[in-house]
Amino acid sequence: MKKMKVLIGNYGSGKSELALNFAFQAAERGERTELLDLDMVNTYFRLTERGQMTRMKEIRLVSPNFACQGIETLSLPAEVASAFAMDWDTVIFDVGGDAVGSTALGRYHEDFMALEEGSLEVLNVVNIRRPLAGTVEKIVHLQEEMQIHSRLKITGMINNTNLATVTTPQELRDGYEMIREVSERTGVPVAYTSGKRELLEQFLSEGYDEKYIGTPVPMDIYMRRDWNSWIKNL
Predict the structure, then answer these.
(1) Quick one: CA dihedral 76, 77, 78, 83, positive or negative?
(2) pTM, full prediction
(3) Contact 163, 174 (CB under 8 A)
(4) Cα maximum dimension of the chain
(5) How far is 94 from 15, CA to CA, in rounded Å?
(6) What is the DSSP track for 113-131?
(7) Which fold has domain 3-232?
(8) Tens of pLDDT, residues 38-96
C-alpha cells in the first residue's frame, strides 16, 4: 500500500528538515520514494537545494516551477500528479507554512480522497518556539485554518520543538506539555516526536506518557545554512 505523509505547520516549524528525514529513512528501507516540495511561501529554505542529495538516495524530488531561481512567484508543476499516478511506496509532501500555503493542497482534494483508507497521514508539525505556535490557542487556531484551506483533516501532530543549534531537551519537554493540551482539547493525536538523536534519547528516558509522544523520529540535520556567506551577499 502506498503511504503518504503530508507535512503542514507554522512557518519555521522544521517541515523541510522532517520531510528529508522521512524520505531518507524510507529510501534506506528500500522503499521507492518521492518527495514533493509544495512550499509556495518560503523561498529561502528549500528542499530543492538538496536535489543532489536526494538523487544520491534515489529519491525523486518534485519542486515548484522557478524554485531557487530568484523568482518570488512560484507555481506548481504538473509532475505533482505523479504522486498519485505512479507506483511509489512512500510519498512525502512538504507544504507551505501557513493557511495560505496549505491552499496548494486543495486542488488535489479528490486525489487524496481516492487513496486507500489508512494510507494518508496529514501531520501538523509544531514548534512552540515559533511565534505563530507559542500558545495552545495559536496552535488550535492555525490547525483549524490549515484544515479549511487544505481541505484535509489533520490526522496527527508532530512535536518538533527546537531552537536550531541551541536546542536542549527542554524544548521537547515544553513542546510535549503544550501539544498534549492541544491534543486533549482537539482530539488530534500526537503521532511523532522528533529531534536530534542525543536530545531525543534523553527526553525519552525521562518517562513521559507514550500517548503524547507517538513514534520517536531521530533526526539528522541536512538543511544547513552558511549564514555569514549569505549576509555578505545581501
Answers:
(1) negative
(2) 0.86
(3) no
(4) 50
(5) 6
(6) HTSPTT-EEEEEEE-TTSG
(7) Rossmann fold (3.40.50)
(8) 875 555 444 555 556 676 677 898 886 444 444 444 456 688 899 999 999 999 999 87
